[in-house]
Amino acid sequence: MYVGLDLGTSSLKAIVIDDKQNVVATATAEIAVSRPHPGWSEQDPADWLSAAEAALSALSSQTDLTAVTGIGLSGHMHGATILSADDAVLRPCILWNDTRSHAEAAELDADPAFRDISGNIVFPGFTAPKLVWVARNEAEIFAKVAKVLLPKDYLRLWLTGEAVSEMSDAAGTSWLDTGAREWSDTLLAKTGLDRSAMPALVEGSETSGALRKNIADRFGLPAGTPVAGGAGDNAAAAIGMGVISPGQAFVSLGTSGVLFAANDSYRPDAATAVHTFCHAIPDTWHQMGVILAATDALNWYGRFVGSDAASLTAELGALEAPGKAVFLPYLGGERTPLNNAAIRGAFVGLEHATDRVAGTRAVLEGVTFALRDCRDALAATGTRLDRLTAVGGGARSEYWLTAIATALDCPVEVPASAELGAAFGAARLGMMVATGEDRSVATPPEISATIAPDPSMRAAFDDGMERYRKARTAIGELT
């Protein structure tokens, strides 16, 4: 059997699969986010360990973990977990959706070396500018920095005692030479660091360490169980859905929104604001268009009108043409294609006839149009999308998936199993290190439904996209 641990922003999910990749057990433990100042987003790494303990205890109550032979890890990317020489946490982890370092990110991005070597814009949410912010604002902490770990890699340190990361997560730091798949001494030096502050690197499907005996004994796991390098959350989800070859892609409707496409070569184009990262398996890369609020936008609207997301989407019938109300989902800035931490969301075109249902449709359409922006950015790099697999909480809305299929003019497939996300992908990576099997483990899922674009609505969604772009331009001038 194989364990996958996925450290999400709001919870840690654990899963056990057997040799046939059937799900044997699952568990979830909640994690809180702290927002002490506007634009800040932090977590206490001790809470991750508590969540992992709770999840592993829950797994051990459901199944016999002595048969586990491999463990894989996944986690939210870009977080700056700063450790001293004795591995003590020096401050709360600065998370991926924290924008305090927007000025530092802009300064680094103005240096051509960062785009040339990392293949990406230096976004405010990436790790490197966060360390520059710490150096400028918390100098006494920066002086003690001995190691900087990404969130899931702090879990690895707890599990194995090893400070190790892997290519897909490291690519989101702005310190990786993404084409060469190694740390860049040049980029590290530009942020006042060197390789001694970085974890060792392995591929996601390689062994990163062995489970420590004291952890193994606590949860009934075999001591010495190999722990895979694992992956950043989106690369892990891609492994879970078998998105590993050109033309394969998925759309993730989680807290954030992602349009993810696999590539067999390194094709960076930072100017598009597309993320070009290493995949979790060797000699493979991927590209992502990323928006910062997907279901987060729907949940915000739900709080605004006093309802929950499921109730709001249940009120919708068949797909309708976009209405006059336009929603811009920039609640905390935006990445692809804007690279703008200051822009904020808006409703435009409200009228007396705009009721709660019309508002719900506008929110879903706004996120859909933001994903279409991502599709266009991916296309500018030469990346093609033959079809999309839907994942995340928002994928439960058929209305939303039909809107996405129509707006992006691409069929959207709905997996038969809900257990195909990052935790499942992490477990598959654990299976790879335990068995020595290659990417053939990452097969596509069984599909329960395929949602085709609605040709009768194509022109209406094209018109809606044009209104969205005009609104985006107008709002952008206010920031």
Determine the fraction of residues in helical runs and give it as a percent range. 25-40%
What's the gyration radius in Å? 21 Å
Structural class by helix and strand composition:
alpha+beta
CATH topology (fold) name of the largest domain: Nucleotidyltransferase, domain 5
CATH class of the largest domain: Alpha Beta
Q: Give the amount of beta strand, in percent.
A: 15-25%
Tally of helical segments: 16
- Biggest β-sheet, characterized? 7 strands, mixed
The number of distinct β-strands equals: 24
Question: What is the average of the pLDDT values?
Answer: 95
What's this, in brief?
With 479 residues, this protein is an alpha+beta fold.
Describe this protein's structure.
The chain is of the alpha+beta class and 479 residues long. It folds into 2 domains: 2-229, Nucleotidyltransferase, domain 5; 241-479, ATPase, nucleotide binding domain (Nucleotidyltransferase, domain 5, 2-Layer Sandwich), CATH 3.30.420. 35% of the residues lie in helices and 21% in strands. It is built from 16 helices and 24 strands. It has a 7-stranded mixed β-sheet with strand order 18-19-17-16-22-23-24. Strands 3-2-1-5-15 form a 5-stranded mixed β-sheet. Helix 10 (233-241) crosses helix 15 (422-435) and helix 11 packs antiparallel against helix 13. The longest helix has 25 residues, at 356-380. It is globular. The termini are far apart.
